[in-house]
């Protein structure tokens, strides 16, 4: 019998963010694994590229094709070379010990534990493997020409043995699909992406400056062709022996010790040719961190963990949003606390034309937010498309979300309101539209599209909302062009902010706290609308709910004691992790993490509780 299974601590904010490599000390690339070889699980330090040993496996065991099952959080690898059995890897980590070292920036001082293995059955010889979000195990030979799939149900029913098990695992003998390979892709990951226009599941791997992408979610009588993308300007070389996928973003670590870790930005993929057995194109890729030289290695990670990599300085996506009390993060980098109630213009995009079929339509996307109560939490969102509106300024499309039940609804052409169920495709006949996108493992988000050419749309922005019924809504906007950002008005925009709306806190402790979080106080009277929710385009039922949520009198500015603040800090660390990490020296979204963490402390401390911390974590990791 095997020892008791030990899941990887994917529920811990620190350990779930580790980019892990499993490395065989003596290679084991021949027909046998050297008797003195030791396989070690190591965590990457994204600051200097060094790896810290966390767990060592018994001598004489070489492994590859590793992954962590997101259903059970158990780690698996293939015994290779050797029996080619699927192995469960058990590491009895001291979670509290490692968690403390991580937040102190001393993870390199960790003492590795001794792990054990358990045999689950025979697989085909494989160099790379991964789990997807649903718990399916994908693997293939090194050239990834043939892909195999062991379903999540099969994985859950497997039983382990302390001895080699020569029984073939169901799904390991019949190929799922045949792909095209650009060479020896050494590791693969599974993600969900809409870079081709609709949300699909993909397997992705890197070799040199090539990125192999294979769709696996829409397999019919014809297998989707593999996509081979060449990185623009970036020229990493050789094998990428370890790949990781954090929240559907791909990171490839190159073995040579020089190139480090790169992220191919699939949203920038440009497919330019359709060949008999593949499609080809280009993709932007950006350096994420250094990575020490390794060989005979493989990558794995908790796929829902927080991304450990700092962002590049030149990333084109711009983000802003509002969360909690509410704390507003503008697209221009401003950060302030709103002290007001009512319906506000949160985001507005106009000043450009959509062009299709030889006609131009003025674009006018509007998003309103309704803040209620003395703490001004967001209780309603309203999306209105008035592009090409006539003399009556009628809206062509309207959607709303309230914290009453957290369900998106849309207004039909007859004026009725109905829930939005699942993904809704963009109407090709429209010049502007809202596109509802649902990705497995994530909540629905809305893309705002403008016609570009005869057959396609340009994605102007995406809106993600996290919501807990009878609590509040957090929202984040992502925009994909600096030129488009300049056209944005409303609370998130570059246009219309009035410094005369700033407010000064009388409470010294509160003023100090806000200053420490680089946060101003604003009334935003110039973005406050005097119109009722229904006049803006919303439903009668939503208006009734919002009026009930509103409170008499102005918004209140609260503070809390030092002890309460420390308790709030602990609660926010539980959901968000701790900002006192080596990565905090990097600029970009890590600044947003720091701000979000301070916002969370404020909200929890002033009565928001764990609900505020949970919603803050959800919106932070969106996109």
**Apparent shape:** globular
The secondary structure category is: mainly beta
Strand numbers in spatial order across the main sheet = 31-32-33-34-22-23-24-37-36
In total, the number of strands is 37
**Percent range of helical residues:** 10-25%
- Average residue-wise pLDDT: 84
Tally of helical segments: 8
Q: Indicate the proportion of strand residues.
A: 35-45%
What Rg, in angstroms, do the CA atoms define?
26 Å
**Poorly predicted ranges (pLDDT <50, ≥5 residues)?**
581-590
The termini sit apart by 43 Å
- How does the major sheet shape up? 9 strands, mixed
Can you describe this structure?
This protein has a nine-stranded mixed sheet. The protein is globular, with a radius of gyration of 26 Å. With 623 residues, it is mainly beta. Helix 7 (562-576) crosses helix 8. It starts with 19 loop residues before the first strand and ends with a helix.
Q: How would you summarize this macromolecular structure in one to three sentences?
A:
This protein has 623 residues and is mostly beta strands. The chain is built from eight helices and 37 strands.
Write the layout of secondary structure elements.
Blueprint: E1 20-24, E2 39-44, E3 51-56, E4 63-68, E5 75-79, E6 85-90, H1 95-103, E7 113-114, E8 116-122, E9 128-131, E10 137-140, E11 146-150, H2 152-157, E12 177-178, E13 189-193, E14 200-207, E15 210-215, E16 226-231, E17 242-246, E18 249-253, E19 261-274, E20 278-289, E21 297-300, E22 318-323, E23 327-329, E24 335-338, E25 342-356, E26 359-372, E27 377-385, E28 397-402, E29 409-411, E30 417-419, E31 432-437, E32 445-452, E33 456-467, E34 473-479, H3 482-485, E35 488-489, E36 502-503, H4 508-516, E37 520-522, H5 533-536, H6 540-549, H7 562-576, H8 589-620
Parallel strand pairs: 3-7, 16-20, 24-37
Antiparallel strand pairs: 1-2, 1-21, 2-3, 4-5, 5-6, 6-8, 9-10, 10-11, 11-12, 13-14, 14-15, 15-16, 17-18, 18-19, 19-20, 22-23, 22-34, 23-24, 25-26, 25-35, 26-27, 27-28, 28-29, 29-30, 31-32, 32-33, 33-34, 36-37
Helix pairs in contact: 7-8
């Amino acid at each position: 019998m095997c020892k008791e299974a030990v899941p990887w601590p994917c529920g811990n904010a620190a350990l779930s963010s580790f980019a892990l490599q499993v490395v065989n000390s003596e290679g084991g690339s021949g027909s046998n694994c050297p008797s003195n070889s030791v396989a070690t699980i190591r965590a990457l330090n994204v600051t200097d590229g060094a790896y810290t040993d966390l767990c060592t496996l018994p001598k004489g065991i070489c492994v590859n094709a590793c992954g962590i099952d997101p259903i059970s959080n158990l780690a698996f690898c293939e015994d290779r070379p050797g029996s080619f059995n699927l192995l469960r890897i058990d590491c009895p980590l001291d979670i509290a010990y490692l968690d403390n070292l991580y937040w102190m920036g001393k993870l390199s001082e960790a003492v590795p534990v001794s792990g054990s293995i358990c045999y689950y059955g025979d697989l085909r010889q494989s160099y790379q493997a991964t789990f997807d979000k649903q718990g399916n195990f994908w693997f293939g030979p090194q050239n990834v020409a043939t892909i195999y799939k062991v379903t999540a149900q099969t994985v859950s029913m497997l039983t382990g043995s302390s001895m080699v098990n020569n029984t073939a695992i169901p799904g390991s003998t019949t190929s799922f699909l045949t792909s095209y390979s650009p060479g020896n892709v050494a590791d693969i990951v599974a993600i969900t992406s809409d870079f081709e226009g609709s949300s699909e599941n993909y397997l992705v791997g890197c070799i040199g400056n090539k990125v192999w992408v294979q769709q696996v979610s829409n397999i019919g009588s014809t297998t989707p062709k593999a996509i081979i993308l060449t990185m623009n300007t970036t020229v990493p070389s050789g094998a990428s022996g370890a790949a990781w996928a954090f929240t559907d973003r791909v990171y490839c670590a190159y073995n040579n010790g020089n190139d480090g870790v790169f992220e191919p930005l699939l949203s920038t993929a440009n497919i330019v040719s359709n060949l008999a057995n593949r499609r080809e194109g280009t993709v932007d890729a950006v350096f994420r961190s250094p990575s020490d030289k390794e060989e005979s290695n493989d990558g794995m990670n908790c796929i829902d963990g927080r991304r450990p990599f700092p962002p590049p300085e030149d990333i084109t996506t711009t983000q802003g949003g509002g969360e909690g009390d509410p704390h507003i993060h503008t697209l221009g980098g401003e950060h302030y606390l709103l002290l007001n109630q009512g319906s506000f213009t949160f985001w507005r995009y106009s000043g450009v034309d959509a062009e299709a079929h030889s006609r131009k339509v003025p674009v006018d996307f509007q998003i309103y937010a309704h803040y209620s109560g003395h703490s001004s939490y967001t209780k309603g969102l309203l999306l209105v498309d008035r592009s090409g509106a006539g003399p009556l300024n009628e809206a062509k499309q309207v959607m709303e979300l309230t914290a009453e039940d957290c369900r998106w609804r849309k207004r039909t052409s007859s004026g009725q309101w109905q829930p939005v169920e699942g993904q809704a495709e963009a109407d090709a006949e429209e010049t502007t539209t809202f596109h509802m996108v649902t990705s497995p493992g994530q909540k629905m988000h809305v893309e705002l599209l403008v016609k570009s050419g005869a057959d396609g749309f340009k994605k102007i922005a995406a809106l993600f909302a996290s919501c807990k019924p009878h609590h509040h809504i957090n929202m984040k906007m992502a925009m994909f062009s600096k030129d488009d950002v300049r056209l944005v008005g409303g609370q998130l925009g570059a246009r219309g902010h009035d410094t005369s709306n700033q407010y000064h806190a009388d409470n010294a402790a509160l003023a100090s706290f806000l200053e420490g979080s680089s946060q101003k106080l604003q009334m935003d009277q110039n973005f406050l609308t005097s119109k009722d929710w229904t006049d803006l385009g919303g439903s009668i039922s939503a208006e009734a709910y919002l009026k009930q949520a509103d409170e008499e009198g102005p918004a209140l500015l609260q503070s809390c004691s030092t002890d309460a603040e420390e308790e709030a800090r602990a609660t926010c660390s539980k959901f968000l992790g701790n900002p006192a990490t080596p990565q905090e020296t990097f600029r970009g979204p890590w600044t947003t993490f720091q701000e979000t963490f301070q916002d969370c402390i404020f909200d929890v401390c002033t009565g928001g509780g764990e609900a505020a911390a949970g919603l803050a974590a959800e919106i932070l990791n969106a996109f």
